[in-house]
Structures are given as structure tokens and as C-alpha cells.
């Protein structure tokens, strides 16, 4: 039953909700390439007994990573509350999810409505409820985390979604967890959060994804390519196209988040999480085409220094080599990514873009500027 507690003109409400996912119950769609079906079930045993059931708070949880993570945690028997501002539906039924699975999830998930930047509300509401574990999916600054720690002095574990973007640019790759970090990076707030967690002496675990992709992705990573492939347009790629990067599927990331829960080997540790293979920009364009059943794409290379696109981005990736080692997570946690790149892109396409759903409308304005010049196609 729903219960309401008024705190400082903010509404703290807990109620069963409705939501949905893309393929957690099994039966994924074939790609147009007739890729083999594969049930998405995390490797390893995540059996939950009454004694191991946790009261878990997820900061965020309605957009991308948290959607997949919350379903896994509920399925494992934990009591899960999502902390959001309530501007988006807390749950939605996703492609491939059965009505029964959706109803079961929506009857168990709880919602705490509030603004995490309202520190007084965070302290009062969290201390009143008490949580065993916090997953911070959307935290960007250390000052957003400190009130959570203050409110929960008996917290068993704080699991943080950081970023591989914190590493200092280097000629020696892949990035390892022990590599130098860049205090001036645009992710410096995540670095400061990791430092805060260490200084507070809490049991913390930090996950550093590289580029994340998959159904519901709000960052136009694969969607950028799918828009151009569907329109039958050339794909403009900066420089040589042999820049190497790395993508990790959101469902593999969610599995990693579950595997660090209550894991002594993850205590005060950082883990890179991404896909097994690295890929060039040109290779990614071809992989997206293969996953969606499109013809071999026409790729056009250009020198980004020849153009001024203003505030618009002409390409969704940083124009450099950028990839990280996942060997520590494999060795310490026993975690393994289950999706290879083409299969993962097919999962994303079939359960999202291929159904006509996407986050952003196609914008080819920068493409047209590039293609308006005399360039060499490869």
C-alpha cells in the first residue's frame, strides 16, 4: 500500500509502480541476420536467501542503467527503492518483457520522490527510512554524495557509477584501474566522489564504464549510426577512422553492478567495465550496419580541423584512442561480458531503434557541411 510522509514541503512516497524492460524474460528477437537467440541471464548464481536480502536505494533508475539494474535486484529478492524527481514515469513495460514479469516488478519497486540537491531532504528522508546499500547511478559531484553518507551511518556498501573518462590521456593503452587520472577532466566530480568515499572510510565500490550502449541509451552512441544507415546516407568519420574505442552493453554493466553487491572482493575497489573487444570507428560503422541488417555503409573521412560546427557535435565519440582493460573485473569478480559487439548492437537495434523508438531525432546538418566538400570515400 502507498504510504505518504510529508517532509519539509517535499513528498516522500512509497508505492508499487509499473515499469518494463527490454528482454529480461528471455526470447530476444532475431536480427535480420538471423543471429542466434540468447537468453539474457547473468552468469553465475545470484541466489538470495532471507538473510541476504538487502534494503537498497538507487539514486536514479528510470532512464537507462538503473532500469536494467533495478529489475535484476528485484528479481534477486531485494527491496528496491528508486530516488528520482518524479518527472519521468518510474516504470514502463519494455519490449520483450512479459506482462507477468512486468506486473511482478511493478508490484515490488518503491519510489522516493525528491531532488538529490535538496540536501536537507535527502538527510531527513534517508535517515528516516534507513538503507543497507546505495547504488548511485546519476551522481556527478561529491557534494551530492556526502549528505547520503551522513544520513546512513550504518550503510553496508556504497556502489558508485563512475567513468573511464577520468583517466589521464596516455600513449599506453588499455587503461588499467591503477593508471593516472586527470583531475581536470570533465568527470572530475566523479574522481572527487571516489576520493570522498575513500576518506569517509565507508565500504565503497566504484565502477568505471567506457562507452555504454544498448536499449534505452540516451547517449546517441549507436543511435547516431542507425539514423544514417536507415536514411541510406554516407557515414562521416573524423580523421583516419582507425581510432580504437570500446563499448559495453548496458545489460553486462547491470550484471557487474549486481556482482559487486555484498562481495568482499569488491570492498574499496575500482573496476573497469566494458566489452571484451576493442573496435575502430570504421569497424563500429560496419558493425552497426551488420547488426541492423543494412548494406555495407559508405564511409567518408574528414579532417575535423577543417570545419567549425559551433556547439554541435559532428561525431558521438572523442577523436582519439580510448579503451580500458576489463581483466581485473574478470579475475577478481569472475564477471564476463555476455554480449559481443554485433550481437549487442543487434539487441539494441531490435528492442529500440528497429521498433521506431529513439531518444533524438536525426540531425544531418553537420554531415551536410562535411559532405559539401570534396572528400575521399573509402
Automatic annotation (TrEMBL):
InterPro entries: Epimerase_deHydtase, NAD(P)-bd_dom_sf. It comes from the Eukaryota. Coiled coil: none annotated. GO terms for biological process: monosaccharide metabolic process. Residues 56-273 form the NAD-dependent epimerase/dehydratase domain. One of its GO terms (molecular function) is UDP-glucose 4-epimerase activity. It comes from Vigna mungo (Black gram). This is NAD-dependent epimerase/dehydratase domain-containing protein. One of its GO terms (cellular component) is cytosol.
Amino acid at each position: 500500500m502507498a504510504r505518504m510522509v510529508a517532509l519539509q514541503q517535499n513528498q516522500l512516497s512509497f508505492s508499487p509502480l509499473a515499469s518494463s524492460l527490454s528482454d529480461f524474460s528471455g526470447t530476444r528477437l532475431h536480427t535480420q541476420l538471423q543471429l542466434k537467440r540468447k537468453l539474457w541471464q547473468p552468469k553465475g548464481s545470484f541466489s538470495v536467501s532471507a538473510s541476504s536480502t538487502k534494503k537498497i536505494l538507487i539514486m536514479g533508475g528510470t532512464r537507462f542503467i538503473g532500469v536494467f539494474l533495478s529489475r535484476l535486484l528485484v528479481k534477486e529478492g531485494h527491496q528496491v527503492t528508486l530516488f528520482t524527481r518524479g518527472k519521468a514515469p518510474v516504470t514502463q513495460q519494455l519490449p520483450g518483457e512479459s506482462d507477468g514479469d512486468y506486473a511482478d516488478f511493478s508490484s515490488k519497486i518503491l519510489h522516493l520522490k525528491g531532488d538529490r540537491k535538496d540536501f536537507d531532504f535527502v538527510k531527513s528522508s534517508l535517515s528516516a527510512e534507513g538503507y543497507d546499500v546505495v547504488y548511485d547511478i546519476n551522481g556527478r559531484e561529491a557534494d551530492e554524495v556526502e549528505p547520503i553518507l551522513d544520513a546512513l551511518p550504518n550503510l553496508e556498501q556504497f556502489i558508485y557509477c563512475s567513468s573511464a573518462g577520468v583517466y589521464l590521456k596516455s600513449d599506453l593503452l588499455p587503461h588499467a584501474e591503477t593508471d593516472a587520472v586527470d583531475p581536470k577532466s570533465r568527470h572530475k566530480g566523479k574522481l572527487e566522489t571516489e576520493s570522498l568515499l575513500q576518506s569517509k572510510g565507508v565500504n565503497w565500490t566504484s565502477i568505471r564504464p567506457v562507452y555504454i550502449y544498448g536499449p534505452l541509451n540516451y547517449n546517441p552512441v549507436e543511435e547516431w549510426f542507425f539514423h544514417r544507415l536507415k536514411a541510406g546516407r554516407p557515414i562521416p568519420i573524423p580523421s583516419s577512422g582507425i581510432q580504437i574505442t570500446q563499448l559495453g552493453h548496458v545489460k553486462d554493466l547491470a550484471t557487474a553492478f549486481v556482482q559487486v553487491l555484498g562481495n568482499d572482493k569488491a570492498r574499496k575497489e575500482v573496476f573497469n567495465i566494458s566489452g571484451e573487444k576493442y573496435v575502430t570507428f570504421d569497424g563500429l560503422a560496419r558493425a552497426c550496419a551488420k547488426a541492423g541488417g543494412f548494406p555495407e555503409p559508405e564511409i567518408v573521412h574528414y579532417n575535423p580541423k577543417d570545419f567549425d560546427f559551433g556547439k554541435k557535435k559532428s561525431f558521438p565519440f572523442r577523436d582519439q584512442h580510448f579503451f580500458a582493460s576489463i581483466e581485473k573485473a574478470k579475475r577478481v569478480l569472475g564477471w564476463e561480458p555476455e554480449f559481443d559487439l554485433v550481437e549487442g548492437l543487434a539487441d539494441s537495434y531490435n528492442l529500440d531503434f528497429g521498433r521506431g523508438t529513439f531518444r533524438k531525432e536525426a540531425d544531418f546538418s553537420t554531415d551536410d557541411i562535411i559532405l559539401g566538400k570534396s572528400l575521399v570515400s573509402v
